[in-house]
Amino acid sequence: MVPTDSSYSSTGERPARRRRKEARPAELTAAALEHFVEKGYAATRLEDVAAQAGVSKGTLYLYFENKEALFRAVVEEGIVPVLAAAEEMLADFSGSSVDLLRRLLFGWWEQVGATRLAGVPKLIVAEAHNFPEVAQYYHDNVIVRGRSLVRRVLARGIERGEFRSLDVETAIDVIIAPLLMLVIWQSSLRFCGPEFVPENYLQTHFELLVRGLAAGEETPGIGVPDSERQGV
Fold first, then answer.
1. Which residue ranges does the chain devote to CATH 1.10.10.60?
2. CATH 1.10.357.10 domain residues, the chain
3. Which of 7, 26, 78, 84 is deepest in the core (most CB within 10 A)?
4. Which CATH number fits domain 15-66: 1.10.287.620, 1.10.1270.20, 1.10.10.60, 3.40.50.1100?
């Protein structure tokens, strides 16, 4: 007979226990993020993730069928919402394209680059060759959407006459590459050299971008060999 005590649900479970079960997927993905960042994809063991989350390996399998599913959940809970929020911001933004670009780049740093999530792109760079299915998932769900965001900002600026006409697809690469380098440096090499301030790096990157994108400003000699400029 199911107890009628108000501390039980209609299924016989105490609310606290039910809340604990509902919290487990988030606890598992939080533990998984720590292991993926610290050990990499290949070296992360599901039993270690389960132990850190305080559950058995069997319990983990109730929520995630394998390590790839767990990794996908880490991305979907941590990075995908950041992209979705940026897409909403872009759709409703009414200010200048320069300001929009700033919000996009610095927002990415605040919500991903400066957090434990920054270890995910580093993991992909390091292990994509050995785990192509994981890399393809990340490409399709993160990189494609991230590139689309930058593409829309550039197209907006060009259409409004704020940015000069340029090769948008190549510009996307040039904009994103320093951000990726920043993540790799922060997680791998920052202890090997002088003190490094990410915010200064981002500000310098942004200032260079704005000058390069500005409409109506000619920069003599760019893309022209010395011999041609000198009439040789």
1. 15-66
2. 79-216
3. 78
4. 1.10.10.60
* Of the candidates 44, 37, 217, 224, the residue with the CA atom closest to the CA atom of residue 118: 37
Residues 6+ apart with CB under 8 A from 211: 217
1, 26 Cβ separation under 8 angstroms: no
Topology adopted by domain 79-216: Tetracycline Repressor; domain 2 (1.10.357)
**Cβ pair 176, 143 in contact under 8 A:** no
- With b for 16 or more beta-carbon neighbours within 10 A and e for fewer, the 167-199 pattern comes to eeeebbeebbebbeebbbbbbeeeeeeeeeeee
- The neighbouring-strand residues paired with 163 are 214
Residue 127: how many other CB atoms lie within 10 Å:
17
Per-residue pLDDT of the chain (232 residues; tens, 9 = 90+): 344 444 444 445 455 444 455 558 999 999 999 999 999 999 999 999 999 999 999 999 999 999 999 999 999 999 999 999 999 999 999 999 999 999 999 999 999 999 999 999 999 999 999 999 999 999 999 999 999 999 999 999 999 999 999 999 999 999 999 999 998 887 776 667 677 788 999 999 999 999 999 987 554 444 444 444 444 3
Output the CA–CA distances (angstroms, integers) from residue 203 to 96, 176, 209, in the order listed: 18, 14, 10
